[in-house]
UniProtKB/TrEMBL annotation:
This is Beta-1,4 N-acetylgalactosaminyltransferase. Residues 315-436 form the Glycosyltransferase 2-like domain. One of its GO terms (molecular function) is acetylgalactosaminyltransferase activity. Belongs to the glycosyltransferase 2 family.
């Protein structure tokens, strides 16, 4: 017989012959066992709850942490920074007469550009002696049927580039006259997602008032105060807009000294625009938001001499087939710098082994190219500076690397070129001035001229330019940042300096000279290697030049080029 205990919800089994005392004992034992089972179940349940609840909160925290969605394109496409409004007078100035100065107007940027070769006297041997002006239209290198589609793709990429590179700090801000607002014009900077006090905020008492009120607003962060000054009312603390008011001007100005800005939208390098307003007056200033530039320092080690060239400089070159010329270069280097490291990038079809101390020889795929070889060679440099030389150069007593090092150590230059001397005694520095003239939707115009900007103080033989010859010493990290476009495999040099325009501070010294192996050869004296090299180096087709022009058109968004 089974009897149910409704109070406990359990069952016990009783026999027909059991006495009341036995039945009572069995029931008591049953109740005891039931309590034990319930206690064990409760312990397990508590353990499960104790584990699952914290885990649930942890998972919820991790899953919800990424719910904050930020538009990385947090800035609008930039407007044209050239403001032509001064040429168009305001309505109240429309009746004022003036006289335009053409010599100044010609210097101002135009809304369009075009490339035309300058007209010059056509004298004998002009091309060989001083060069001849030329103009190139890059659109002519494009396939006519695909030019429209290519143009659309280029403009789309250009728009993305502008949105990546533009900063609100680039925008022109004009301060109103007689404003009672005091604020920082420049120099305010905060680390991403960090907080600073905004310096220089203040309000002048141009007219006595019973109550003074100011407000500040931003877009990429929040505004708050580090302390609350007596008799100052604060609204919007911790938000994008904060308002401060007080009947006591001194108290309000003390409060303005304690206004903080916290960046809340992460971007490693941008700027926030802050508006400062009071009684109809508005001032705008920017706060730069960026990480600090991490230094990349080189330990030159203890040295008794002024410069230990072997620990400061690595020589890099690119070779193709011309192993006899390369060996002459190495032998000449060892006469003056026996322990300097030489890095060689080689894309010959059947590479020969280059042996010797302090030589690193890197083999590339066959005909990988001129600029690809430069990239490989420079990428392996571990010294502060890299000296680039062609494989047919020859060091001479005037090849003083120390002079070039001295220039870079004592100036802000990133790269300094020397001079290359031909067997005829003529030498060139190939100093170039490079200008990009604003254009229209078809692209900008590139203008190159032989020349330089100015002489460098303390170095009378050195000048500042935009491009130099194929013999230069540069800061390794700076050259790596610009890089060499591997799409340029045969015809390339000036392209590196065009890509580095605005990023590289370039100089040139004509008192540091390297010799150029003679290129004068009689037709019957050319070896099989010479003929094979000429076939690849000077191809009959214009494919290399056409590819170069296509890169100028699309990658650099240039429509044409003029030069000498």
């Amino acid at each position: 017989m089974r009897v149910r205990d409704n109070r406990r919800g359990c069952c016990i089994f009783l026999k027909d012959g059991d006495s009341p005392r036995v039945m009572y004992k069995k029931r008591t034992i049953g109740l005891y066992l039931t309590r034990i089972c319930i206690m064990r179940v409760n312990r397990k349940l508590c353990f499960v709850v104790a584990v699952l609840v914290p885990m649930s909160f942890f998972c919820f925290h991790m899953w919800t942490k990424s719910d904050k969605v930020v538009a990385v394109w947090n800035r609008e496409a930039p407007e044209d920074l050239l403001d032509n409004s001064p040429l168009q007078p305001l309505e109240k100035y429309a009746g004022i007469s003036l006289k335009w100065k053409s010599e100044v107007l010609e210097l101002l940027p135009k809304s369009n550009c075009k490339c035309e070769a300058e007209t010059t006297l056509d004298i004998p041997f002009r091309q060989e002696l001083i060069g001849k002006p030329y103009a190139v239209n890059f659109t002519a290198s494009m396939v006519p049927l695909g030019i429209d589609e290519t143009h659309k793709r280029r403009e789309l990429e250009y728009k993305k580039f502008l949105m990546r590179s533009y900063s609100p700090a680039d925008k022109i801000i004009v301060a109103e006259a007689n404003s009672p607002l005091q604020y920082p014009l420049q120099g305010v900077e905060v680390r991403p997602l960090k907080t600073i006090l905004i310096p220089g905020l203040g309000l002048l008492d141009l007219k006595k008032k019973q109550n003074y009120e100011v407000s500040l607003s931003c877009t990429l962060g929040t505004l708050n105060v580090a302390a609350e000054v007596d008799s100052v009312t604060i609204k919007g603390a911790g938000e994008k807009q904060i308002t401060l008011s007080s009947s006591l001007l001194d108290n309000l100005n003390r409060q303005l000294q304690l206004v903080s800005y916290s960046n809340t939208v992460f971007n490693p390098n941008t700027a926030d625009t802050v508006q400062f307003q009071s009684d109809g007056h508005t001032a705008t200033f920017t706060i730069k938001v960026r990480h600090p530039t991490i230094p990349k320092l080189y330990d030159m080690g203890p040295t008794k001499s002024k410069y230990n060239i072997s620990s400061l400089v690595t020589i890099a070159t690119k070779t193709f087939l011309r192993y006899d010329k390369l060996q002459d270069l190495i032998d000449s280097i060892r006469k003056f710098y026996p322990t300097i490291t030489i890095i060689i990038a080689d894309d010959s079809e059947k590479p020969q082994k280059i042996e010797g101390p302090f030589i690193e020889h890197y083999i590339m795929p066959f005909r990988k190219g001129w600029f690809a070889g430069r990239n490989l060679a420079v990428s392996q440099v571990s010294t502060k500076y890299v000296l680039w030389v062609d494989d047919d150069f020859i060091f001479c007593p005037q090849t003083k690397i120390e002079k070039l090092v001295d220039v870079l150590e004592k100036t802000s230059l990133d790269l300094v070129g020397g001079a290359v001397r031909e067997v005829t005694g003529y030498y060139t520095t190939y100093r170039q001035i490079i200008n990009v003239i604003p254009g229209d939707k078809e692209g900008d115009c590139l203008k190159t001229l032989q020349g330089y900007h100015h002489i460098i103080e303390g170095f009378p033989n050195c000048v500042v330019a935009d491009g130099v010859v194929n013999f230069f010493l540069g800061r390794t990290d700076k050259i790596l940042k610009v890089g060499f476009d591997p799409q340029l495999s045969v015809v390339a040099h000036l392209e590196f300096f065009i890509d580095g325009l605005g990023a590289l501070h370039v100089g040139s010294c004509d008192d540091v000279v390297v010799d150029h192996a003679s290129k004068i050869q009689l037709p019957w004296s050319k070896t099989k290697t010479d003929k094979e090299y000429s076939k690849f180096r000077y191809p009959k087709s214009s494919h290399a030049v056409t590819s170069q022009h296509k890169l100028f058109y699309f990658k650099n968004r240039l429509k044409c080029m003029t030069g000498n």
